[in-house]
Amino acid sequence: MENFVGTFWAFVPAIIAIALALVTKQVYLSLFLGIFVGSMFLAGGNPVEAIANMFGTMGSQLGSNGGILIFLVVLGIFAVLLVKTGGSKAYGDWASTSIKSRKGALLSTIGLGSLIFVDDYFNCLTVGSVMRPVTDKHGISRAKLAYLIDSTAAPICIIAPISSWAAAVSGFIDGDGIIVFIKTIPLNMYALLTIAMMIIFVVLKLDLFKMKKNEKAAQKGDLTAGENELPTEDITVGENVKGKIWYLVVPIVILIVCCVGAMIYSGYFYDWDAGVYGTTVQSDSFISAFSNCDSGSALAMGSVIALIISFIVLVAGKAISFKECMASIPEGFKSMVPAILILCFAWTLCATMGAKGAGLDEVTGNVIMDGTLNAKAFILKNISADNMALGIVPAVFFLIACLISFATGTSWGTFGVLIPIAISVMGGSSEGLLFLTMSAVLAGAVYGDHVSPISDTTIMASSGAQCNHVDHVRTQFPYATIVAGVSFVSYIITGFIAQSGASYGLTAGITLPIGLGLLGITIAAFYFLDKYGVLEKLAAKLKKKKA
Predict the structure, then answer these.
(1) Residue 269 located in a structural domain
(2) Does residue 284 lie within any of the structural domains?
(3) Does the residue 57 lie in any domain?
(4) Is residue 200 part of a domain?
């Protein structure tokens, strides 16, 4: 066991799970085998002990993430309700007459995703259920919809001061974490450039690589490009159901209001030390309440309250019968089981690896044996700015955050590991360089979360779009990696500018224009390569070589 803890071996279980998922397309089996390998490392090769520990870890993860699981089940019930009342169909019928082009459908999806910035889970499932009928009618592939949903989830939440992500990040920062978080927003290259690239690709009608094949198939009627193994069971309704748009809009508004209200309530009254809600006020302002909230329990509480209110409103408005409301509860739960199963495996894999492990002993510097592979200790031992020019540090932190988040499937875990290290390494540097480094950590963590097959947000985007999960990963990866490459170069350039003594204001003012300029050049290159068929010829050559 000691030979694996706090070493690169801590990342091997994730590498195995990701590689197997991409090759075999069997996500459940791949994740399970990755967990088993990590458990075998911890058990010193004893299979009986490994299996016992594996299910013990899984049980603890189910308990600690119980609020999120309740929230997901409630969202599944909401999705069923919106279909059964005919609300989704009514919106789709209205949208088909109001949104008259593919471009309009795509931009509407981006717009709705940008408006729902409170939480990424909420974003993925809500945008998916609302916009899927619209994109289907315009022959837009499920993979393209999943990409847009995923790209307006974490990238939007990480630049929204009032969101569960802002709360998570500020929790890893001493002092006024929300103010620090706000200062990273104009420097977060990956999030800002992802939004810019989505809009540019839609305006230019540009699709690349496998996404282009999926879009061609969708225009011929095959929305899933032959990948029909979907992450959740699709709910359908008969043609004779005549719904109204308010059947969809009112429940969603109720859900948003209740979830935001619950997060604020949680921030004011949740006692983290006791682990319970009380009557003593725990926060002194609205902003600090958001940073202090327990998002898991708050989303569970808010969504359940919203569901009860929606039941009452829909039954009173004769949109649906009480009996059908009750029947939607098990149906909604059933529809979310596949996604919940993947999430449980992903959380267990992350816990086994120890992305949020105990790290190193502050006195001796030794790896702490905490029952996990303590991947955090490996990072702590191997990150130092001593041998690097300070200007390159933001780019290096960006790259490390990308790799950790991709391997572990958790951006929040990556925040917990790298933000304290970034502050420690760059604390004595200029304010511009410090915030640039912190924003690079956030940007890299979002990229890894965005493209990792074992990321909960990626799984939720697949579920919301009703897209095959592995197909979503494969079609999204090149798009996200183009933005990550541009972000990496941007951090190198702005890092050396900030090292020269540039203030925070100057650094924030030049970073986005540099990134947008580089992104424009990159997209122009791909546009002409695609226009003249160069990309297709290269793909054909690679395929021929493999054969």
Answers:
(1) yes
(2) yes
(3) no
(4) no
Angle, in degrees to the nearest 10, between helices 177-184 and 431-451: 80
Report the amino acid identity of residue 151: S
Distance from chain centroid for Cα 317 = 36
Per DSSP, which regions of 105-149 are E strands? none
In the chain, what percentage of residues exceed pLDDT 90? Answer: 7
The rounded distance, in Å, linking the Cα atoms of 392 and 377 is: 23
CA dihedral over 408, 410, 414, 416, signed as positive or negative: negative
Which range of residues forms the domain containing residue 303? Answer: 66-170+229-343
Report pTM.
0.72
How many domains, the chain?
1
What is the spatial distance between Cα 293 and Cα 177, in angstroms, rounded to a whole number?
Answer: 13
pLDDT digits (tens, 9 = 90+) for 328-346: 888 888 877 776 777 677 7
| Residue owning tokens 């925040």 | 415
Q: Report the candidate in 342, 284, 281, 303 with the shortest Cα–Cα distance to residue 119.
A: 303
Residues 403-462: pLDDT tens digits?
888 877 777 767 766 777 777 677 566 777 888 888 898 899 889 888 888 787 888 888
Q: Which residues of the chain have pLDDT under 50?
A: 387
Location of structure tokens 């706090």: 6
